[in-house]
Amino acid sequence: MRNVVVTGGSRGLGLGIARTLADSGFQVVAVARNSSDGLAAAIADVAAGTQGALHFRPCDLADTASLPGLVKTLRAEFGPIYGLVNNAGIGTPGALATMKDRDIEALLRLNVLAPITLTKYVTRSMLAAGGGRIVNIASVVAATGYGGLAAYSASKAALVGFTRSLARELGPMGITVNAVAPGFVDTDMTHSLGPADRARIERRSALHRLPDVADVADMVAYLFSEKARNITGVTMTVDAGNTA
User: Structural domain of residue 221, as residue ranges?
Assistant: First the structure.
C-alpha cells in the first residue's frame, strides 16, 4: 500500500481528502496539531473496510524545525512516502493595514514556509522510492483576489508558483507536482460568510452553487491516480464555475 501524508487532515477539507484517498486504496497519515471526533470516526470506518488505511500523527506544522524529525519518524513507521498533500493553512481575515504583524507572520509560516519545508524532506523519500505525487491546496483567491484576504491570497499565490517550479525540478525523477484551487467551500474557513455573501457567490458561479469538500477531495484523488500520470505543474480549479 502506498503511503500518503495529508496535512491539516483532522477536519474540513483535509479530513475529506484523507478519507477519500484512504477509500482509494492508499495508506494515509493525517497530520495535524490535534485529532477530532470526525477523524476518529473516519479511522474506524476505514479500518472496517477493505481498501486503504487511515492513521493520525500529531504535529504542529508551524514548528518548522520539527518537520525533518516528523518525516524521519513517518518513514521509520510506515516506510517510503509516495504522496504528500499540503493542505494545512489558516485564513486570518482583515484589512492588511490593520492586521497585526504577528498574525501575518503566523499565516505565512503555516501557509508557505511549512509546506515548502515539509516538501523538501518528503521529496527525499520520494526520490529514494523512484517517484511520487505532490498536491498543494491553493485557492481561487490567489488569482482573483478578495477584499480582506490580501495576506492569505499572497500565501496561496506563493504555493502556485512553488508548484510550477517544483514540477520542473522533480519531473525527471518521476514526481508530479500539482495544485488544486478550491473556490468557496463549506468548511470552517468560510463559516464567517453571511447568508447574503454566500448567496452572492452562488449567483456569480456558472452552476449557481458552491462546491463541497467531496468535489475537492475527488480532484486530489484523481491527481493521485494513474489517469493523471502525465499531469504536472498545473493548478486545477474546483469552484463550480465561479471564476469562469
Answer: 3-238
> What stretches of the chain adopt beta strand conformation (E)?
3-7, 27-32, 53-58, 81-86, 132-137, 175-182, 235-238
In a structure prediction context, what are the per-residue pLDDT tens digits for the chain, which is 244 residues long?
A: 999 999 999 999 999 999 999 999 999 999 999 999 999 999 999 999 878 999 999 999 999 999 999 999 999 999 999 999 999 999 888 899 999 999 999 999 999 999 999 999 999 999 888 899 999 999 999 988 888 899 999 999 999 999 999 999 999 999 999 999 999 887 665 666 677 877 888 888 999 888 999 999 999 999 999 999 999 999 999 999 988 7
Domain total of the chain? 1
Residue with cell 522510492: 129
As a dihedral over the C-alpha atoms of residue 226, residue 25, residue 58, residue 105, rounded to 10 degrees, the angle is 30
CA Rg value for the chain: 17
The pTM of the full predicted model, rounded to 2 decimals, is: 0.95
Look up residue 191 and give its DSSP letter: T
Task: Supply the CATH number for residue 133's domain.
Answer: 3.40.50.720
Beta strands in 49-158 (DSSP E): 53-58, 81-86, 132-137
Strands 27-32, 53-58: pairing is parallel
Q: Which of the residues are catalytic?
A: 152
